[in-house]
Automatic annotation (TrEMBL):
Entry coiled-coil feature ranges: none
Residues in SH2 domain copies: 123-220
Compartments where found: Cytoplasm; Nucleus
This protein's record includes keyword Cytoplasm: yes
Positions of the UniProt region annotated as Disordered: 307-328
Keyword check for NADP: no
GO CC list: cytoplasm; nucleus
Name of the molecule in the record: SH2 domain-containing protein
Lineage: Eukaryota, Metazoa, Chordata, Craniata, Vertebrata
UniProt family annotation: Belongs to the transcription factor STAT family.
SMART domains, per database record: SH2
One GO MF term attached to the UniProt entry: DNA-binding transcription factor activity
Highest rank taxon of the organism: Eukaryota
Listed Gene3D superfamilies: EF-hand, SH2 domain
Length: 328
């Protein structure tokens, strides 16, 4: 018996799906399969992920459950429930995921790309939780102290990373920042952006932010003006979002803030009413393009070409291509 292999990189192959070379069984010898079983695809994705990100921290069982839920549009939290399920090529990289304008592979490839380009140390440090959705982020943070935050991969933006954090206010107790993309991280790093936001205190579950990220902060270099020009500094600024009710007995804020319209109240964190506030997108998340993100304005003025994620439209050559090898 021979098997179909998945090409993970130029030097790495994974035995993928056993295929009988016997024409009597009604299959063309060594033909590319129309479908592959989810467990084998999991192994291939994990090896591809570690090779691309160049990390020993691979995909956990929880990560694979998240990916299965995304691919199969399922709510089951048990990896075993997917063991007998198969994935077609169209499902993998031709058909858009339900409710989104991208394929499974495009989304997964965007995750690998942004980690590889900008966040490899943070992924290796375990600082990026990554594979959780908005509801799961809420469940993880809801009973944590104010200032606890996590970093997750965006559903709405390929290669995007969003910050979710806990902070009780009259309006809500969980907050989601509009996703940053590789374009944003080319201007200012994730560590520096987190360092700018003093109200983000603990990396989920309970690690002090400074302990995790301070070693990656860009040093502030002082100096006198050159040719009469004072060098500006770029700093992440988020609109005011806390405590519209000053009679509640708490101070308006204990954090750095920029003047902006107050956030509209929400009855429930994932039920978003019609929102007239121009600084929020339709999901009730902050839209930094409409706020005081100085970095974006500097980029527009300078008109510098910046790197941006251009997700590959197809997986690496050979992912569903057969190659003859012996079973291990």
């Amino acid at each position: 018996m021979s098997c179909v292999c998945v090409k993970i990189s130029s030097s790495l192959h994974l035995p993928f799906l056993p295929v009988s070379p016997s024409p009597s069984q009604g299959r063309v010898p060594f033909a590319v399969p129309d479908k592959v079983l989810w467990p084998q695809l999991c192994e291939a994705l994990n090896m591809k992920f570690k090779a691309e990100v160049q990390s020993n921290r691979g995909l956990t069982k929880e990560n694979l459950v998240f990916l299965a839920q995304k691919l199969f549009n399922s709510s089951s939290a048990h990896l075993e429930d997917y063991n007998s399920m198969s994935v077609s090529w169209s499902q993998f990289n031709r058909e858009n995921l339900p409710g989104w304008n991208y394929t499974f592979w495009q989304w997964f490839d965007g995750v690998m790309e942004v980690l590889k380009k900008h966040h490899k140390p943070h992924w290796n440090d375990g600082a990026i939780l990554g594979f959780v959705n908005k509801q799961q982020a809420h469940d993880l943070l809801i009973n944590k102290p104010d200032g606890t935050f996590l970093l997750r991969f965006s559903d709405s933006e390929i290669g995007g990373i969003t910050i979710a954090w806990k902070f009780d206010s009259p309006d809500r107790n969980l907050w989601n920042l509009k996703p940053f993309t590789t374009r944003d991280f080319s201007i200012r790093s994730l560590a520096d952006r987190l360092g700018d936001l003093s109200y983000l205190i603990y990396v989920f579950p309970d690690r002090p932010k400074a302990e995790v990220f301070s070693k990656y902060y860009t040093p502030v270099v002082g100096g006198k003006a050159v040719d009469g020009y004072v060098k500006p500094q770029i700093k992440q600024v988020v609109p005011e979002f806390v405590n519209a009710n000053t009679d509640a007995g708490t101070s308006a804020t204990y954090m750095d803030q920029a003047p902006s319209p107050s956030v509209c109240p929400q009855a429930h964190y994932n039920v978003y009413p019609q929102n007239p506030d121009p600084v929020l997108d339709q999901d009730g998340e902050f839209d930094l393009d409409e706020t005081m993100d100085v970095a974006r304005h500097v980029e527009e003025l300078l008109r510098r070409p910046m790197d941006s994620i251009d997700p590959r439209l197809s997986p690496p050559a050979g992912l569903f291509t057969s190659a003859r090898s012996s079973l291990s």
